[in-house]
Every structure is written in C-alpha cells, then in structure tokens.
C-alpha cells in the first residue's frame, strides 16, 4: 500500500490557492469509461445514477450532495436531540468518461472537458482490476497508462485554453491593461506553459500567491491546477489483502507529478457493504469475514472536502443542530453570511465555543452555563477567523 498522506493537517492546500473562494465548491468524479466512476458516485451520494457496462453511459453530468461524516456532529445531535439535523455537505458531480483524443473532440470531447472546468476539485478514479465482464476502453488494464492518458488530455486542453486567453488578453489589453502584465504574471505564465507542454500538472506548490493571483487574472479556469484525490478501484480480493502490483507504480507516478493523496478502495466490496446497510449484524459479519476491512467511503468524502479547503462551524439548539460549510480562513462576518446575508450585513459579534471545550465542560447538558463560568465562552469580533468545529451564535442588527 502507498504511504498514507497526512491529509488531516490544517491550513489551505496548495490546490485551493488556485480555486474559487466559496463555500459551495464541488468535487468532480473523473476517469476513463468503465472504471467505476458512476458506481462510486451512487455509493457516495446514495442515489442511483446510470452505471452500465459500456462507454459514455454518463453523458450529462449527474450532481448530488453527500454528508460529511463527523462524530462531533453526531455527539451534538445526541445531546440536543433537535427536531432538525443538518450535517456538513459535499457537492459531487459525476462526469462522463474521457478517452484519448478528447481534447481534439473525440468521444464527448470539449463538452466533457468543460464539465471538468466547472468543478473545483477532482476525484480521479483509476481502474486496477482485471475482469472479463467489464469492458476496458483500451482492451487491457494498465493504470499508469490510463493516468498518462487523462493527464495528457487535460494538459492539452489547458494549453489550448491558456494560449487563447493570453491572445485575447494581449489583444484587448493595449493601454491600461498592458501595464498590468507584471513580471510575476509573466513568470507564472512561463512556468505553467512549460509544465503543460511537458504533460505535467500546472499545480506547483512553490508558486507565490502573487504569481497565482496574476495568472488567475488571465486564465482562471485551468483544469490541471485543481486539487486531485486519486482513487484506485481494486478488486475485492486485492482490497481486503491490501496488496496490488499496481499500487506502488501508481504511487510513484503520482509522486513524480507533484504528489497527491492516493486512496485504494473497491467498488465491488463497497457495494456488498452497502447492500447490508440496514442489517448491522450482516454488515459486521461481512467485515469480520474480510479481515476487518471497513468502508473507505467516509475517508474519501472527508479528504475531498479537505482538499477543497472547506471547513464548517456548528449552530446548536433544541430546534436544529446544523453544520455550515465555509471556506477555510473565513472571518466571522463571512461565516455569519452563510446563514443569512442580514447576519453579515448587520454583524455585531460572534459568541464562540470550541467543540472540544464544550464537550469537556458542558457537564453532559445542552447549555453554555459552565463554559461561561470557566471563561471558555468567548465574544469575537469582525477580525476573528472561524475555526473548524466552532460552535457559534451570532449577534447582529440590521437597521433601515
């Protein structure tokens, strides 16, 4: 198995610096046809999108949301016993399979690539199992070749996009706009063009924020700057044994292209677990009979959420316990605005308690009394950066 990446570390991921600063960001499920994309999408989102055994079964992208697993949310719900329970949600898009030549219009061509441009992060599904029953678009299974195919097509599309954007920018930019072509922009452009021409991801952690900001002003929709989570679809047997001849090769390929999180999983095994979702005893038996192998879906969701640099805070009460998506680094007024625009417009202060403090000192009761007595209940102003897991009540006033 490849070494586990420390995706739990705090702070914005490098890929997030290239993306949109919003709370409603999306992960797109991408890969060649018949690698398990739509089946994974169905499992993640608990719905039934078409997942047949032939190329281009998915044409128009399917979109859905899946809840982000969190023991803190469950604990708060058990404590408050609210009428309404709303967990943090991750938006996921199932995108049609890509084939070689898509950047020149093969298969679904530019329509497919435009769908990838519209998402903010990528779940790149790679097939690493043999099966006579599941057609492979290239007639044989070779995950490294498939990775190269996808990367090449995305780089070609980005290169074409960058060239057109630069031409337009320089054409209409004579005069005032031309003066904005700073050295940092030119440096960033040269780096990205070089990486695209070599079929390498444009995402380079060493880029400065100034370089990224200048480049985004000209080419804001680069596919290869999006954060990627590589999901390796194994057979049930290989997943349970935690062994596959392809995993070291895939891990090396990812490392040589700038790194990223690689998560082995098995659609075959996940479907077996899913079918027993309503029978806890049957589900436990499946896990026990397969060397204790548990579902990887919760980790896939949490890592995708983290790669988008999303976090969430809680609001709690008898009527509702809710987790609110915000972009990492958001200030208190921005967080308040996710609840209602009036909360941000008339923001006065945020009354904040960290989850760990609340759990330790609430005395098993849904009250802030102990926290206030201990000084753990804080009043924060407009400059406060909301932290993941904060429990917040906003004070605001909107006058005419």
TrEMBL record:
Coiled-coil ranges per UniProt: none
TM stretches of this protein: none
Domain of life where this protein originates: Eukaryota
Cellular location(s): Cytoplasm
Alphabetized Pfam families for the sequence: MMR_HSR1, YchF-GTPase_C
InterPro entries reported in the protein's UniProt record: ATPase_YchF/OLA1, Beta-grasp_dom_sf, G_OBG, GTP-bd, P-loop_NTPase, TGS, TGS-like, TGS-like_dom_sf
Annotated OBG-type G domain residues: 25-285
Cytoplasm among keywords: yes
PANTHER family: OBG GTPASE FAMILY, OBG-TYPE G DOMAIN-CONTAINING PROTEIN
Subunit structure: Monomer.
Function, in words: Hydrolyzes ATP, and can also hydrolyze GTP with lower efficiency. Has lower affinity for GTP.
Family: Belongs to the TRAFAC class OBG-HflX-like GTPase superfamily. OBG GTPase family. YchF/OLA1 subfamily.
HAMAP family given in the database record: YchF_OLA1_ATPase
Protein name: Obg-like ATPase 1
């Amino acid at each position: 198995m490849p070494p586990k990446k420390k995706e739990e570390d705090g702070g914005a991921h490098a890929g997030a610096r290239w993306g949109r600063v919003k709370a409603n960001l999306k992960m797109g499920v991408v890969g060649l046809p018949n690698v398990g994309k739509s089946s994974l999408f169905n499992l993640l989102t608990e719905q039934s999108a078409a997942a047949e055994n032939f190329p281009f079964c998915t044409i128009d992208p399917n979109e859905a949301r899946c809840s982000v697993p969190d023991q803190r949310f469950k604990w708060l719900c058990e404590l408050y016993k609210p009428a309404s329970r709303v967990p943090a949600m991750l938006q996921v898009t199932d995108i049609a399979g890509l084939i070689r030549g898509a950047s020149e219009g093969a298969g679904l061509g530019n329509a497919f690539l435009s769908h990838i441009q519209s998402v903010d992060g990528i779940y790149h599904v790679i097939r690493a199992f043999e099966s006579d029953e599941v057609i492979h678009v290239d007639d044989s299974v070779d995950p490294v070749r498939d990775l190269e195919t996808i990367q090449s097509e995305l780089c070609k599309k980005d290169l074409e996009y960058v060239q057109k954007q630069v031409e337009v920018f320089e054409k209409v930019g004579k005069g005032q706009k031309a003066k904005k072509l700073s050295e940092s922009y030119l440096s960033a452009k040269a780096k990205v063009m070089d990486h695209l021409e070599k079929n390498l991801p444009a995402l380079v952690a060493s880029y400065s924020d100034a370089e990224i900001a200048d480049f985004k002003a000209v080419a804001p929709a680069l596919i290869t700057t999006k954060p990627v989570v590589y999901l390796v679809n194994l057979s049930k047997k290989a997943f349970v044994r935690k062994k596959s001849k392809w995993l070291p090769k895939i891990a090396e390929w990812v490392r040589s292209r700038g790194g990223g999180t690689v998560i082995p999983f098995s659609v075959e095994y996940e479907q077996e677990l899913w079918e027993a979702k309503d029978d806890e005893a049957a589900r436990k038996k499946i896990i026990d009979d397969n060397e204790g192998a548990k579902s990887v879906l919760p980790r896939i969701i949490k890592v995708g959420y983290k790669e988008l640099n999303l976090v969430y805070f809680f609001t709690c009460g008898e009527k509702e316990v809710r987790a609110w998506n915000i972009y990492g680094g958001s200030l208190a007024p921005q967080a308040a605005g996710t609840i209602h625009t009036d909360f941000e417009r008339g923001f006065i202060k945020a009354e904040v308690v960290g989850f760990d403090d609340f759990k330790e000192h609430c005395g098993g009761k849904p009250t802030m009394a102990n926290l206030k007595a201990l000084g753990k209940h804080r009043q924060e102003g407009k400059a406060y950066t909301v932290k993941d897991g904060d429990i917040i009540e906003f004070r605001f006033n909107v006058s005419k």
